[in-house]
Amino acid sequence: MSPAALPSLMLSLPLLGAVLAVLLRSERSRVYSYLCSAASAVAAAIWSVQVLLEGTASLVSDAPSVWGEYAIRLDPLGALVLLITALTFACVAMYALFSREGVTARSALLFNCFVLSILLAMVADHVLLLMIAWEAMSLTSFLGAWGAREDEDTIAGWRYLAITHFGAALVIAALAYLAVSSGEVRLSEMRGLSALIGPGASAAVVIMLFLGFGSKLGLLPFHIWMPDLYSRSSSTVTALLSTAASNVAVLVFVRVTFSCVGVEGQYALSLTVMGLAALTALWASWQALVQRDGARVLAFSSMENMGLILLTMGAAMLFRAYGAAEPAAFALMAALFHLINHTVFKALLLMGAGTVRRAAGEWDLERLGGLARGLPGLSAVFLIGTLSVAALPPFNGFVSEWAMFKALMHAEPIADPLVRIALPLAIAVMALCTAIAATAYLRLYGLTFLGRPRSAGAERPRPLERSELFPLLPLALLCILLGVASFPLLEELAAAVSPLVGASGLKVVEGSSINFLHQGGLDPLGLSALLGFGMLVAFLIVRATGRRKVERVDTWDCGTPLDRRTQYTPTGFAQPLLRVFQKVYRPQIEVREEPRPSEYIRAVRFEQRIPEPFVDHLYKPLTAGAIALAMRVKRMQSGSIQAYLTYIMVTLVVLLVALR
Amino acid sequence: MQLTDVLIVIAEVSFVLMVSPLLTGIIGKAKAWMQCRQGPSVLQPYRDLWKLMRKATVASREASWLFFVIPYVCLGAMICLAVMVPVFNVGPSGGVGDMVATIYVLGLFRFMMVLGGLEGGSPFGGMGSSREMMISAIVEPTLLLSIFSVAAISGTTDLSSISRFFAALGPKGLSPTLFLASAAIFISLLAENSRVPFDNPATHLELTMVHEGMLLEYSGKELAMMEMASYVRLTMFMVILSNVFFPWGIALGTGAGELLVGVASISLKLLLLSVSVAVVESVMAKMRLFRLPNLLTVSFTLSLLAVMSYYIL
Lengths: 660, 313
Description:
The complex is a heterodimer.
Chain A: H1 5-23, H2 27-54, E1 57-60, E2 71-74, H3 76-99, H4 105-123, H5 127-146, H6 154-182, H7 194-217, H8 225-232, H9 235-261, H10 267-289, H11 294-321, H12 325-360, H13 371-374, H14 376-389, H15 396-408, H16 417-449, H17 456-459, H18 466-469, H19 472-484, H20 487-501, E3 509-510, E4 513-514, H21 524-544, E5 550-553, H22 570-580, H23 582-585, E6 588-598, E7 601-609, H24 613-634, H25 641-658
Antiparallel strand pairs in A: 1-2, 3-4, 6-7
Helix pairs in contact in A: 1-2, 1-4, 2-3, 2-4, 3-9, 3-12, 4-5, 4-9, 5-6, 5-9, 6-7, 6-8, 7-9, 8-11, 9-11, 9-12, 10-11, 10-16, 11-12, 11-16, 12-14, 12-15, 12-19, 12-20, 14-16, 14-19, 15-19
Chain B: H1 3-34, H2 44-53, E1 57-60, H3 65-84, H4 99-118, H5 123-154, H6 159-169, H7 176-192, H8 211-214, H9 220-245, H10 256-283, H11 292-312
Helix pairs in contact in B: 1-9, 1-10, 2-9, 3-4, 3-9, 4-5, 5-7, 5-11, 7-9, 7-11, 9-10
């Protein structure tokens, strides 16, 4: 088999799928086109395994281009991320197939285009190719979310387009600057350019890339499109966008920052990155707690996870800046491991959320509840995802979050007091984020699946077919596997990131535990075995005291029969924390007396609105300003030919004079 | 891991399981004495558990499969914790006893218990769950920061190594950092284990309750397991507090004499801590729910100061 076979399969199959989706407008066409995506993902997975076994693969196309030769490249680091991403892709494609979520030819087409652009962006080595793929990714996700209906909510859509293009402009400017100043068009050829372009320029490039890619990751203040897009798109699109698109952004950012540019001596830059990431994570976890829509909770959860990943990455930059290569490599490994884990559990959760929406016909948390009895299988799978995202043992989120905490605990090698204050603060922020976000996930799970149903749809959910649950199972299994048996992956990751930060062969696995710098290790398998052992002991103790009899009665109600509303609501559940962090949320609460239904009963209407300060104080003035400017400029556009001829004339003269 | 190590770990787990209800009984008795009451016997928790174990379970019609799984996970997590934490012997280092991981095992316990509170849709359960999450959102960062300060001093997060480090240093190891961190952990102990001033463990069906509210729907064997898990959690917090910060007397080797001293010293420390919890509960009133964040923020600040003081002093 020629070395180009797998990558060409990977890139051509989605194209075929897209063509099929357009040509065959029957019911069957959809099946084939989704199968094409799944097959392409399988090819990608096999290719990445091949790369992991045999080393970096690089392919150059013969097609002539304006700007050097188009090239794709997959190194072990990219292969690790691509492997997990591709497995997730295959599950998402199967899910789209079985759930009949993408019924139309249009969504099948967009799905294939989206898959293609993400895969291309992940392996692109040529700068121009990367930009094209990046742009295609933004456009397809926009069309997937907003193009479908002629509807009123176009502002959010335009906002997404504007933000993502602002980000793209920054990325393109930074990459173009790098390409021009180094004379190379391939990312793999750019090495340590900071020596060439100077520390000031390289800091500017890194910050531009950080903001540019950050616009896709939900970095503050670019995050406002995320909840809107998540609550509107189908769960297949969001499952890809939240996981694969974030992976691309983080991966390219890591490559360019550490390998192409280099961060030696960039103390202020590293601290800025850490600060922005910390703010993002905090804001996201606060917001996740008070959302009513499950998809919006998950959107803020993505933002929170990306914030934590970028925070750890900022710590890696800081370590690198001070020349502590090994802690930097460990921090980078932890961040990328969390990125991989995030791919798995977030795809699982988003698809699970989509399944809930279809089964119950509701996705307002205030109208769900008690689904665990009607959908036990889904509730079990969703629980695995929830425990993973809440970073609880023995699941994968726990292992990577543990590693991120440990990465931040390496203040020792650096004597600078500023750093020794910054790292504990980072730990405090990360711990606070985790704790608040865990509450948000608990609220999401508990009020969806437990308790009593809050609406008719939740009371009698449509029974799920087995095939609808099937695509979620591999992901749930991966959540457990990456948690208990992550050593091979971690060793590969450590080996792959070490050269990026100039560490020589970081050793992270010691005996049966993840260990680094004598600081105490984690034995995930041992811990899971212990948890299992503990549960077994508990079971044996209980068995020893005789058989268990269960009697089913009503929930304890103090003599007043309970109905749908006499239980804790999602708003009520978040209320204590909302009051603790009142300064952050600034809720606008309105309590109005209503006419009395009877002499003894007072009726009160309670309304609570949580303002979105970034929209109100940043984006609304910006939009208004842009529109005002457009109105000014409009005066020039009179429509008469003479005026335009004059403009052309004036421009010509000015150019001739200026460029003489 | 050698056979003696395994035997010692089994002995430690049995010790924790046996002693936990007694500590709760001792706290109750000490409180009763301070209030000039006779009080129930210190063995009362054992009797309660035994009674509950033989009773049938009454569960809500609205409860799902998870309701019956949660008690096993909770008790299992606490048994797991008892293995991870050195009790009277420091044990071999580099095992599973990582301190950050212990916080997450505690987190697993809390997460599952709170989910159990939401089962059945009882208003009391929801209230308890929601309040518990408010408290834990501030307690968890506090615990992690306290650990960070200890890890910074001893250079490790492995519990065995930490105990060994401080036991070897003796009173010389005492530092402001250690005091600040242990104060933060003591406040967290009260908050996490639902003691006054955070929660009143003696109330039932009151609007003040947090912990009991979450267990309201449980009965029979399930309730016994949840209660047992809560007893063990209190004990494990005390063990962590004593063995991480003041591990003097803990057995460093596996000699019989050393082990005896270790058992005696940990028993003494547990007794002292139980009495001090009883004293705190007797001299303080339960706080209003929305004044709790102030106290929790104090403990958070203490732990932050602990870390800062290590690097600055």
